[in-house]
Specification:
- The protein is of the alpha/beta class and 272 residues long.
- It contains eleven helices and seven strands.
- The chain has a seven-stranded mixed β-sheet.
- Helix 1 crosses helix 2, helix 4 packs across helix 5 and helix 5 crosses helix 6.
- The model has no long low-confidence stretch (mean pLDDT 94).
Amino acid sequence: MRLDLHVHSTASDGSLTPRAIVELAVDRGLSALAITDHDSVEAVKPAQDAAAGSSLMVIPGVELSAVHEGLDVHVLGYFVDITDPAFLQHLRALRDARLRRAETMVVVLGDAGFHVTLSDVLLLAEGGSVGRSHIARALVQRGHAVSVADAFDRFIGRGRPYYVPKDSASPADAVGIVLDAGGVPVIAHPGVTGVEDLIPELAAHGLAGVEAYHAEHTLEQAAQFAAMAREHGLICTGGSDHHGPTSPGAPLGAVEMPSDTLPELLRAAGRA
């Protein structure tokens, strides 16, 4: 059974539409796919509609942003209720914070002589959740950077001159938002963000899983996080963190994970 539990669409910073992601997943023989856009569930229903009649399971998901002592913490939510009004209000607030940050970053960059407009950024976001990747792409389009990676490295990555933090929930709050929406909260790529020390604390707040098998984790890290998950009674998930064929990173469905990953996730969601 092949699955990918971490995929982004045009509803946030991915380059593929929900339908295109589903078509690619079916072509690659995936059994299950989770759409996990940043602070948005707008792509879930279109993806589920596109998968109707196929053998592909589309899991409703989201990736929430949080901050702890200056570190980014991302919490994935699986099987969230995408119709829950309180949940949708939380997502709107998070997207509003993203937009405010983008507005500030555009001003800061312009004051330094790196002119991009908010219109540039919003056009690239195509109505989806605005992220730094859209600002990076605008910098590339304006000739200020040679690539998205270059834009992050020199301008807008954390610790770089024009990085602006956004208003974010705490990791425990993000876990609570997922739980309140009936979902299964999982900490995303702890080896990438360096937040593995938070796992025991978040487990006490209801964290249900760890994304041990991520495209940017080494084999040693995957084994380490799988062991931590077992120690704290958490499930292990995984995914490519796919953002589209033109973005850096792993292809859709490229990350292997244990055969019991999906059954354990379904049990955690009460859908076994």
